[in-house]
Amino acid sequence: MARLFDNLRTGAWVSRERARLVGLAVLATSLFGLLYILATATGLNDYSGRPIGSDFSNIYAAGTYVLEGEPAKPFDPAAQHSREQAIFGAVTPFYGWHYPPFFLGLAALLATMPYLLALAVWQGVTLVLYLLAIRAVLPIPPPLAGKNGPPSWLSFPFGGGIEKLWLLLALAYPAVFINLGHGHNGFLTAALFAAALLTLDSRPILSGVLIGCLAYKPQFGLLIPLVLLVTGRWRVFIAAGVTVALMALAVTAAFGVEVWRAFLASGEFTRTVVLEQGGTGWHKIQSVFSWARMWGAGLPLAYAAQAATTVAVATALVVIWRGRSRFAEKAAALLIGSILATPYSLDYDLMLIAPAIAFLAADAARHGPAPWQKTLLAALWLVPLIARSFAQFTHIPLGVPVLLLSFVWLLDRAFRTDAPDIIESQTA
């Protein structure tokens, strides 16, 4: 038992070769699953009758309404479902449109293409953005750098050349294939968030613009303004606010005021049916609120538990961002805290954890891993693989506890680390 504890503390069990083998196994299995879905599909639907890329169907359906000059229709659940059935068949399940009007323009652009092409473009472009963001976080030397020296712990020989372990692990990260299977926006969210953090001090206006663009997923922007305010990053804060205001004006000019009324009215359906009644499925939602509801808590208790978590995370983030933690730890804390702070975060939203892992891995490469760091990184990487299925069959959530443990570890680091509050160079 003492040896097991020591291995977990030091992370000795997380070897480069083991990471490579696990990454290859997950990547191969996930690719096989995606190929199976495509091979057994009929038209636009998979073997079970759902649209290929399931949740992307609501983006595409909403886009068709915008192209027809009816941008408020996607916010009407009955109308949205009717359009989905018209495109994908009468037995198509309902995939609700819960985004702010900011997302309608992109939906319309995608709807100008045939469905499968639009899905491929959407996932392909945003996947590349995600990979570029992860690459920018990591201090990886150029291919010929260090040729005569020891190899980087982030690289390994593969396929006859020098491939990067980061690329394997970034592609094999289990949330990637959850995102691909759902045709979702996790790649874009992760890329925007990571890029905003990387440019926070070097290019504050750009960082603010990127943060403003995250307004299409407002549940993840709750804590960002707080961090900007308590650290005095006023230019980023103002740029983000101006970006959101300009996007709102553009949306209003393009679609009219009615689209905002429709959006606000649809919030009742989203809150009651999707969140409070668990229409999505408690096992899919990775939040304290969902955890409480899964275990039978009433709405007041579930909301109280989520509110207490959100306040605690917000308070801890103030401590972390005003404390002595290195920037990589602060960035990871904001990414993880942004998921913990919202009651509505699904397992494909765990894509936000990928840049958090990258920041912490880069920090470990520079300074050496701290106690428990490698084990926590492995747990964060693995948890999307089993979080949904394990909770579905056992009613025991794994995602939120792993996120909470990691966040507490980062808070503890704020009291132990002695480093200036600067953004270290993230590229070679």
How would you concisely characterize the structure shown here?
The protein has 428 residues and is mainly alpha-helical. It has one domain. The protein is 64% helix and 2% strand.
What does this structure look like?
The chain is mainly α and 428 residues long. Helices cover 64% and strands 2% of the residues. The protein has 19 helices and two strands. The chain has helices spanning 2-10, 16-39, 56-67, 77-88, 104-111, 115-137, 165-172, 174-182, 186-198, 204-213, 224-230, 234-255, 258-276, 288-294, 299-322, 327-340, 353-367, 373-394, 399-414; strands at residues 155-158, 161-164. The chain is globular. The two termini are 41 Å apart. Residues 141-163 and 424-428 have low confidence and may be disordered. GO terms for molecular function: hexosyltransferase activity.
- Succession of helices and strands: HHHHHHEEHHHHHHHHHHHHH
Question: What Rg, in angstroms, do the CA atoms define?
Answer: 22 Å
Q: How much helical structure, as a percent, in the residues? A: 55-70%
How is the largest sheet built, in terms of strand order? Answer: 1-2
Beta fraction: under 5%
Poorly predicted runs of 5 or more residues: 141-163, 424-428
InterPro entries: GT87
Keywords: Cell membrane, Membrane, Transferase, Transmembrane, Transmembrane helix
Subcellular location: Cell membrane
GO molecular function, one term: hexosyltransferase activity
